[in-house]
Amino acid sequence: MKISRCTNSRIQTTDFKNLKFGTVFSDHMLICRYEYGKWGEVEIRPYGPIEMNPGTQILHYGQAVFEGMKAFKNDKDEVLVFRKEENFKRLNKSAIRLSIPEIPRDVFMNGLNNLLSLDSQWCSKEEGYSLYIRPFIFASGECIKASSSEEFTFIIITSPTTKYYPGEINVVIEEHYTRAARGGVGSVKAAGNYAASFYPTKQANAKGFQQVIWTDAEHHKFIEESGTMNIWFRIGDKLITPSLSDSILGGITRDSVITLAKDNGIVVEERRILVSEIIQSYNNGNLKESFGTGTAVAVTPINSITFKEERITIPSQKDSFAIMLKKQLQGIQKGKIDDKYNWNSLVS
Ligand code: COI
Predict the structure, then answer these.
(1) Which of 92, 188, 239, 294 has the CB geometry, 3.0–4.6 Å to 102, for a possible disulfide?
(2) Most informative mutation of 295, 300, 329 for ligand 1 (most atoms within 8 A of CB)
(3) Cβ(238)–Cβ(268) under 8 Å?
(4) Same domain for 122 and 239?
(5) By alpha-carbon position, which residue is closest to atom 5 of ligand 1?
(6) Last residue of a domain, one of 116, 138, 162
């Protein structure tokens, strides 16, 4: 591995009190290229521009996948990476679906460890802070024929972060646009999934909603995800979340919350959820909570759901499952609660 350190760290001039999600980057990045049928040497170098020609394939056909993961600093100043094995597996699952060569384990794991070790100061120990890690792979061959590239670039950048959504989350059920269809790429982190969501999301934003609730492509009757999050409902004292399919992303936070909830004795149902069931549960007084989960947002309560013209305001609960599960998840991530599931790994 080739490591070149930056000569002038930007950390002293970074305003950690006013971090806007995804806008500040740590000093270094990892880069590795795939050429002539194999991944080459890993290089860690100062964060900075990458050169590409206008004919580079990613710019034309969007052949790219990414991950979102987080590292936290505990009281002993150690950096803990949360469930990196799961992100590694999901990155390669996404790569396969997008016809991108898989990243070798040592490139990902050793590269990530070295990068985080070099930029460990960017991971703040303060409560509520973490280091968001963004690994991504894109088609870097120069060719505008509509076919899979033969050259790819793998990069990891990191970004100090606090809250993703600063305020309330009011969502609207989307009945026209679709995030993902059966047989498509909705269950993987293809860059284009997000690009296609921006227009409908902007329209929802203009009406005062932070996000949309995506429904199934065929009938718009079943709930799938909310914005970039997996979605959950507490009906009575059960937690319900849509079962995974090829149009729903298998969130690592989703999986963690299922484990934590079950361990707390909460019944968790993973199944198809009709929009009408949620409306009915609200009308019967059984809809107690709704929340989203994701790496960037952790566990985020949803304040209201609008369906057609009707707005459902979700009551706040004294014994909120969302708040309890968020505390437990973040306690484990920060090394404050026993990591009995072995989710954390120490950066060395
Ligand atoms: C994440 O939660 O890491 C995501 O992928 C959301 C992201 C698009 C910011």
Answers:
(1) 92
(2) 295
(3) yes
(4) no
(5) 68
(6) 162
Which residue segment(s) compose the domain that 221 sits in?
Answer: 170-333
Helix (H, G, I), strand (E, B) or coil at 199: helix
CA 50 to chain centre: 24
Cβ of 228 below 6 Å from ligand 1: yes
Q: Kindly report the pTM of this predicted structure.
A: 0.97
Q: Ligand 1 in contact with 68 (CB < 6 A)? A: yes
Considering only CA atoms, which residue is closest to atom 3 of ligand 1?
Answer: 68
340 domain residue, yes or no: no
**6-30 tens-digit pLDDT:** 999 999 999 999 999 999 999 999 9
pLDDT in tens, 226-249: 999 999 999 999 999 999 999 999
Instruction: Locate the ligand 1 atom nearest the alpha carbon of residue 229 and give its number.
Output: 2
The pLDDT score that the predictor gives to residue 315 is 85
- Tens digit of pLDDT for each residue in 67-120? 999 999 999 999 999 999 999 999 999 999 999 999 999 999 999 999 999 999
Taking CA atoms only, the protein residue closest to ligand 1 atom 9 is: 296
Last residue of a domain, one of 126, 141, 162: 162
Query: Exposed e or buried b for every residue in 113-138, given b needs 16+ CB within 10 A?
Result: bbbbebbbebbbeeeebbbbbbbbbb
